[in-house]
Specification:
With 161 residues, this protein is mainly α. The protein is built from eight helices and two strands, in the order ααααβααβαα. A two-stranded antiparallel sheet has the order 1-2. GO terms for molecular function: kinase activity.
């Protein structure tokens, strides 16, 4: 999987994973209540896989970008869509063998730019360069559940109010 060019064996997040991620993200802001439109969430969750199939794209960085964009734009959750989108993309990369460690200010900026429909931020081929720049290969991909245990370290401090 060097350089993000996995040709097979991509591990995907399922909608239940995204719900757990959203609930965990909201636990840092207890005044926000959980709600989800499951039909919208299922569509957002499938978008990277569909993109991979129809675009013949196996690059995990492009697919992580597509995942972040699709969750952010779908707005399936009542609260925490940007947080969930970012965390899901981090976990997606991690379960596929990459550790993503961007600068916090860039996380907030890209998340905002996607939500406000900035054209470049909503282009997965552009956004993938950010994922690629701040990612390093991991010797041991891990499962989604173990990533959720480390979630506080994934959430930017400005989102933990």
């Amino acid at each position: 999987m060097a350089n993000g060019d996995a040709t097979k064996g991509i591990r995907w997040l399922v909608s239940e994973d995204l719900i757990l991620i959203n609930k965990k993200a909201l636990s840092f802001t207890p005044y926000e209540k959980f709600s989800v439109n499951r039909n919208i969430l299922d569509g957002a969750q499938q978008r990277p896989n569909t993109f991979s199939y129809f675009e013949n794209c196996k690059d995990v960085y492009v697919l992580a970008a597509q995942l972040m964009i699709s969750i952010n734009k779908a707005h399936a959750f009542g609260n925490g869509n940007k947080r969930t989108a970012f965390i899901a993309s981090v976990i997606f990369l991690r379960i596929n063998g990459f550790i993503f460690s961007p600068q916090e200010i860039e996380i907030l900026q890209f998340s905002h730019d996607i939500a406000t429909k900035c054209p470049l931020a909503n282009d997965p081929y552009h956004l993938q360069s950010w994922f690629r720049h701040y990612s390093t290969p991991s010797k041991y991909p891990i499962g989604v559940r173990s990533q959720l245990e480390d979630l506080p370290f994934t959430i930017p401090t400005l989102w933990r109010k």
